[in-house]
Amino acid sequence: MLKITNAQARRLWLANHGLAQAPTGPLDVMGIIRDLGFVQLDTIQVVSRAHHHILWSRNQNYREKMFDPLLAKDRAVFEHYTHDASIIPMETLPYWRRQFQRKEREVAKWFKSMPDDAFRAAMRARIAQEGALSTHAWDTKRADPSVVWSRPPHKMALDYMWYKGDLATCYRENFKKFYNLPERVFPDELRLAEVADAGQINWLCTQAMERLGFATAKELQGFWEAMTLAEARDWMGQADLMPVEVQAADGSWREAFAVADIEARIAAAPDPTSRLRILNPFDPAIRDRDRLKRLFGMDYKIEIFVPAAKRKYGYYVYPLLEGARMVGRVEVAADRKAETLKLVNLWPEKGVKWTMARTKKLDAELDRLARFIGCRLDASQKS
Question: Is-above-0.85 flag for pTM?
Answer without folding.
Answer: yes
